[in-house]
């Protein structure tokens, strides 16, 4: 099973509008075409599909993702307009991946750049993990641990401790896939009570890239757009990042 994660498209109503360092729609088109040639079984779009939250921006996204030859699912980021996004295409909270399962969380706090999972979602997550022992991935927009950039860590998942408490009893959680950070990232979180550890992966944006390790907001002018590939097998997962030359 091959899952591809695409994230942080930051599309605008104007299809020709630039971002700080490029052209979001053109870059998304290039990334999707590159990813399509990798023959994914499923594609995850992990938030900030839109920059301006307009219905037109989601229509642009639908036109691009229609080029995929597989099912695809999306979840909201802090920039997304939830109602317009859901009107454009349904939001799902879980996906059956055969021997694996994917749970999708909404960490959006309306009007704020940081994320929260919330008490109700923590309870739902605990119940879902308890009900099915298949190896599981969780996808969310905001990273549930520090990524080493001060300004970004301040706007990550604010109630990350509650998230990790909810998942600690469930050893079949194998990894978390997040967006928001606009860079390739691989980290691990040690669970409480000697319950092992969970991998956390971030992916390059299709739009602008952020400079790893920066104290303040900084664009990485040297990095290219990209996506993450996740191979799911009976004995575990492997993952890597692909970059796209424009």
TrEMBL record:
<dbReference type="InterPro" id="IPR029052">
    <property type="entry name" value="Metallo-depent_PP-like"/>
</dbReference>
<comment type="similarity">
    <text>Belongs to the cyclic nucleotide phosphodiesterase class-III family.</text>
</comment>
<keyword id="KW-0408">Iron</keyword>
<keyword id="KW-0378">Hydrolase</keyword>
<dbReference type="InterPro" id="IPR004843">
    <property type="entry name" value="Calcineurin-like_PHP"/>
</dbReference>
<dbReference type="Pfam" id="PF00149">
    <property type="entry name" value="Metallophos"/>
</dbReference>
<feature type="domain" description="Calcineurin-like phosphoesterase">
    <location>
        <begin position="1"/>
        <end position="183"/>
    </location>
</feature>
<dbReference type="InterPro" id="IPR026575">
    <property type="entry name" value="GpdQ/CpdA-like"/>
</dbReference>
<protein>
    <submittedName>
        <fullName>Metallophosphoesterase</fullName>
    </submittedName>
</protein>
<keyword id="KW-0479">Metal-binding</keyword>
<dbReference type="InterPro" id="IPR050884">
    <property type="entry name" value="CNP_phosphodiesterase-III"/>
</dbReference>
<dbReference type="GO" id="GO:0004112">
    <property type="term" value="F:cyclic-nucleotide phosphodiesterase activity"/>
</dbReference>
<dbReference type="GO" id="GO:0046872">
    <property type="term" value="F:metal ion binding"/>
</dbReference>
């Amino acid at each position: 099973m091959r899952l591809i994660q695409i994230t942080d498209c930051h599309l605008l109503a104007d299809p020709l509008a630039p971002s700080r360092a490029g052209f979001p729609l053109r870059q998304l088109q290039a990334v999707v075409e590159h990813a399509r040639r990798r023959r994914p079984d499923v594609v995850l779009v992990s938030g900030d599909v839109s920059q301006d939250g307009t219905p037109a921006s989601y229509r642009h996204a639908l036109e691009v993702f229609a080029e995929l030859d597989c099912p695809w699912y999306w979840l909201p980021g802090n920039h997304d307009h939830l109602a317009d996004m859901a009107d454009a295409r349904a939001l799902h909270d879980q996906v059956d991946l055969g021997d694996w399962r994917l749970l999708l969380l909404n960490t959006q706090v309306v009007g704020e750049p940081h994320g929260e999972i919330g008490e109700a979602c923590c309870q739902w997550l605990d119940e879902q993990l308890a009900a099915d022992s298949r190896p599981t991935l969780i996808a969310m927009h905001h990273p549930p641990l520090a990524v080493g950039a001060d300004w970004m860590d301040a706007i990550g998942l604010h109630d990350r401790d509650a998230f990790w408490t909810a998942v600690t009893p469930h050893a079949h959680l194998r990894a978390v896939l997040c967006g928001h950070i606009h860079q390739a990232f691989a980290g691990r979180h040690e669970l409480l009570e000697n319950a092992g550890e969970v991998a956390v992966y971030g992916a390059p944006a299709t739009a602008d890239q952020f400079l790893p390790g920066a104290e303040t907001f900084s664009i990485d002018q040297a990095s290219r757009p990209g996506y993450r590939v996740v191979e799911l097998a009976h004995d575990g997962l492997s993952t890597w990042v692909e970059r796209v030359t424009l």
